[in-house]
Amino acid sequence: MLDSYIKSAVAEVFESMIFMEIDSGDVLDVTQVELVSDVMSMIGLAGDMKGFIALYFPERVARTVTAGMLGMEIDEPALDDIKDAIGEIGNMIAGGFKSCLISEGKNILLSTPTTVAGTSLKAGGVSGATSIVIPFSTQAGAFHIALKYIRE
Amino acid sequence: MSTISEISAKLVDSTVEIFTGMVMMDISVKNEKLSQLGKLRKSITGMVGLAGLYKGVVAIHVPEKLALAITSSFLGMDVDEMNEDVQDAIGEIANMLGGNVKAILSDSGKDIQLSLPSTISGDEYEMSSGHDVERIIIEFDAPEGTFLVDLEMETSTT
Fold first, then answer.
1. Whole-angstrom distance, CA of residue B66 vs CA of residue B157
2. By the 8 A CB rule, do B158 and B55 touch?
């Protein structure tokens, strides 16, 4: 259920803002996946569900998605453009997820997005929360979205 | 609401309190007003989101060597590699800082809520703040290095 909310939020953002084809895969076993990326965006969730949504992009995919969103050529976006775009995309996906939860009577609050770019980025969190990891694929390559939460 | 320097001063006190009481480590302020984060190298960042009356992020950025020392002290055991214990410890410290920031920013404590803490680590990374945010970055001295406490708040009230 929750993964379908994320998938529909992603589909909406890609359709309306990025104009790229996107496919989603089955939810991954978080113990089998090591999420390493070059660009990450995280949005905290509070209220009826405490957690966060995190987007994990390899550099090439982040750059292509940014170029799509800003109407640029692939090699045009600067690192700051990419960080801004991925942060904004994360924010919109979290917003879409929030709307889906509202439709089932749950209200969540979003924090501001944090975007990180670097080498060999690894994400972690405190143990004990539920993790849902969804793979997405585009013509430029794959990326992942994780939802980590505890129900209050 | 308090001014930035009032918040900053209280954030310093909170950090010292947490480190003295929970981590059992003596720390002191090195620089109360860093203007930017710069590149973080071989470090781990713990952070927690704020939502509600104020929207933002509270983060702590710690170099690996110090993160191992903090985790060892916090857990009362020797930790010598960057593993899940370190993520848990740094995430938990961020969570405690978040709890204190909640109390600093809101009298009732009910109109600001915290997300789950998370950690990010890497060989070299940069963290972007959003636009229209107020940012406080404080540098602290600890026995095995320096670390940063970073509070970001959206200035537009939504």
1. 36
2. yes
Distance (Å, rounded) from C-alpha B116 to C-alpha B106?
A: 19
Within 13 Å of residue A15, how many CA atoms lie on the same side as its CB?
A: 7
Measured between CB atoms, which of A84, A87, A126 is closest to B116? A126
ipTM: 0.90
Return all residues near A101 (Cβ < 8 A) that are at least 6 apart.
A5, A48, A49, A107, A108
Nearest to A110 among B51, B95, B133 (CB): B51
| C-alpha span between A7 and A135 (Å, rounded) | 10
| B143/B140 Cα distance (integer angstroms) | 10
Average pLDDT, chain A: 92
The pLDDT of residue A152 is: 65
pLDDT tens track for A126-142: 677 899 999 999 999 99
Within B42-156, residue ranges assigned H as helices are 64-75, 84-105
CB atoms closer than 10 angstroms to residue A30: 14
Give pTM, 2 decimals: 0.93
Determine contact: B107 vs chain A, CB below 8 A. no
